[in-house]
Write a structure and sequence with these properties.
2 copies of one chain form a homodimer. Chain A is an alpha/beta fold. Helices cover about 45% and strands about 15% of the residues of chain A. Chain A has one domain (about 10-285): TIM Barrel, CATH 3.20.20. Chain A is built from 11 helices and 10 strands. In chain A, helix 1 packs parallel to helix 3 (about 45-55), helix 3 (about 45-55) packs parallel to helix 4 and helix 8 runs parallel beside helix 9 (about 240-245). The interface between A and B is medium-sized, with 34 and 34 residues. Chains A, B: Pfam families: AP_endonuc_2. Chains A, B: This is Sugar phosphate isomerase/epimerase family protein.
Chain lengths: ~290, ~290
């Protein structure tokens, strides 16, 4: 257990097929202190039960995944999405309350892709800004930070029209930094020629809501969504990226979030152990 | 024939399985006035024969593909790559001489990916700059423009460490604009939140060496290299991108370059006809 870094947090997507009870158990049993949750497994047991289970686990809560899907034009579907985001904000606040000391009320937002048949990328991006504007007062009231997550540009049309950290920070800049920040996820931003200057800027502006790590490797699998790897199994330089994040003063948990069919097909306790080892080797040496 | 825009150029990769003779014939027969060539089919017949064939076709020559592969550390392999680039420069100059009036001596450069086992993205990018420095005097002597092509970030580790137009322009900025420019390819840059400002900058700096078009659609195929589509079959807004390029004063040929297995498996004459129709519908309306 002594090799498990205290700042490591297991994002539940890394052990996707584990239900909430299993995810909490294998994470705590491995000596990991923190977990990031996803809405589906939380809602499977209901929020009240989930908060009790989280409290009983003794784990910190580092983030909730995920809200967003903001690119729809005005209408019922968009209204429903905004309502669902308010519920996600409530869940985030409740889970952060239930988690151990040092928990953070961070809701990760994935903006959404182009609406079916649309080529209006600029319009879609403006609707993201509008949706943030509608949610911010509610998030502020709940004490929740919305973390805009830029996704790799290969997801730019179908999943997320926010493609760079700089763009996420531009979107966030209309709002208070305590309520709107950005998710800094190595997988999505490692390639960006501006990545170091934008991480420094995010720090200066107080906008690093969460730092998430996993690796990039090629060839990409047939489903590119599942192309995330254990740190060290790809090409990302975790030394320089982690140091850049730490230099901004970021002092909270660091999540490992991996979508990978082979990893999902592995026993979750083994996955958590392997994740902790990879973290100890690639990220922990660059922490203060 | 009246529907074929005079500025359309067929990049030979769009009809990959056609040899040089076939590519020239189907392009000219369709009433297309210009072609972009690839090194392999040119070298299959030899440069002298290729220049004669091109001259006989009456077509303009719009670009040569491709040089680059600049990210190797110092050594024999890098020296060989630089030597090969000098041959590509010679080919480009000869082909531009042989093409009809209005031909342009443009060599498209794909920088190359991270060397095997390396995570040093910054170092790889610096080696691209160094390699350009070594080739520029030779290109200048030959009257050839090197077009740095930013590739979509999904190719950032294995094919091209130059991922944005802004980064390509930063690399180019050390050199004379007549000798080093950038390739503006819609497929690679459509997602970039800075795309319009960087196209305008490229124009101001005299660096748009070639404008290439094709479309982006999802889901991506298993081999993401082959995910290019006819214009109109995806999500790219050719109206705004083409107008942005034209507003800079760009007045040369516009190439269609599509890597797509299904298109490659189609009769090349049909592909050229379909390409001309897609160009007439999506790009030509935005030309002066």
């Amino acid at each position: 257990m002594s090799t498990v870094d205290p700042r490591l947090s297991i994002n539940q997507a890394t052990i996707k097929y584990a239900d909430l009870a299993t995810a909490l158990r294998v994470t705590a049993d491995a000596g990991v202190q923190s977990i990031g949750l996803w809405r589906e497994p939380v809602n499977e047991v209901g929020l009240d039960t989930a908060t009790k289970m989280l409290a009983d686990s003794g784990l910190r809560f580092s983030s909730h995944c995920r809200g967003g899907f903001f690119t729809l034009p005005a209408g019922l579907e968009r209204d429903a999405a905004l309502g669902d985001n308010r519920r996600a904000i409530d869940e985030t606040a409740a889970l952060a309350d239930a988690g151990a000391d040092g928990s953070t009320a961070v809701l990760v937002l994935v903006a959404g892709g182009l609406p079916e048949g649309s080529r209006d990328l600029i319009g879609a991006r403006e609707r993201v800004r509008d949706a943030l504007g509608e949610l911010v007062p509610y998030a502020q009231g709940a004490g929740v930070t919305l973390a805009i997550e830029p996704l790799h540009p290969m997801f730019g049309s179908d999943r997320c029209v926010v493609s760079t950290l700089g763009q996420a920070l531009d979107l966030a800049s209309d709002f208070d930094a305590a309520t709107v920040g950005a998710a800094v996820d190595t997988f999505h931003i490692w390639w960006d020629p501006q990545v170091y200057e934008q991480i420094a800027r995010a720090g200066r502006e107080g906008r690093i809501a969460t730092y998430q790590v996993c690796d990039w490797a090629t060839p990409l699998p047939a489903d590119v969504l599942l192309s995330r790897h254990y740190m060290g199994d790809g090409v990302i330089d975790f030394a320089s990226l982690t140091r850049a994040v730490i230099e901004t003063g970021y002092d909270r948990d660091i999540e490992v979030e991996i979508f990978n069919q082979q990893i999902w097909d592995t026993d979750p306790a083994d996955v958590v152990a392997r994740t902790a080892a990879a973290f100890a080797e690639t990220v922990a040496p660059h922490l203060p």
